[in-house]
Amino acid sequence: MFNQKLMKKILFLSFVLVVNVAFAQSDEARKKSFNIKKEGAIEGYDPVSYFEGKPKEGESNLTYVFKGVRYQFSSPSNLAKFKATPEKYEPAYGGWCAYAMGETGEKVKIDPETFKIIDGKLYLFYNFWGNNTLTDWNKSEKTLKAKADQNWKKLLP
Questions:
Q1: CA nearest 36: which of 119, 110, 146?
Q2: How much is the pTM?
Q3: Domain boundaries, the chain
Q4: Taking CA atoms, which of 31, 58, 125, 144 is between 20 and 30 Å from 44?
Q5: Is residue 111 classed as helix, strand or coil in its secondary structure?
């Protein structure tokens, strides 16, 4: 017959193990939804730098993984800011083009230097071959943002 204290410990440790496995699986699924290149999210750009007015490329030796997604930073202070409030700095829609997410619900690559901060959130856009989707986004931002929010919820695990 098991001792009650031992049984409680076994149950608690089992619970912790199940929770950790669930988080690891959800992080992996989340990672698959994000726009990630070999250098990490936002093509290696520092997510905090956007809020300082100019995007900067991150350094490969200054990285942090948040819920399965790796980010690079241009300075130790930006890394510290991100660690303190990562949700504040993560790009909307997993770093995919905000316009495309609103227009068609598709995951479209971005130009990491074409962005907009809206209500304290980072939005990124496609800007290649004379097609800057930020311009189109600005024409119908409210409608596109509402659609993009809905479409992104469908894509997340």
A1: 110
A2: 0.82
A3: 34-87, 91-157
A4: 144
A5: strand
Banded model confidence at residue 8, pLDDT cuts 50, 70, 90: low
Burial of 116 (0-12, 13-18, 19+ CB in 10 A): middle
Half-sphere exposure of 97 (CA within 13 A, CB side): 22
- The β-bridge partners of 79 are none
Neighbours of 87 (CB within 10 A): 9
Q: Residue 41, Cβ neighbours under 10 Å: how many?
A: 24
In the block, residue with structure tokens 């962005």 = 115
Rounded Cα–Cα distance for residues 3 and 6 (Å): 5
Q: Specify whether the CB–CB gap between 102 and 151 falls below 8 A.
A: yes
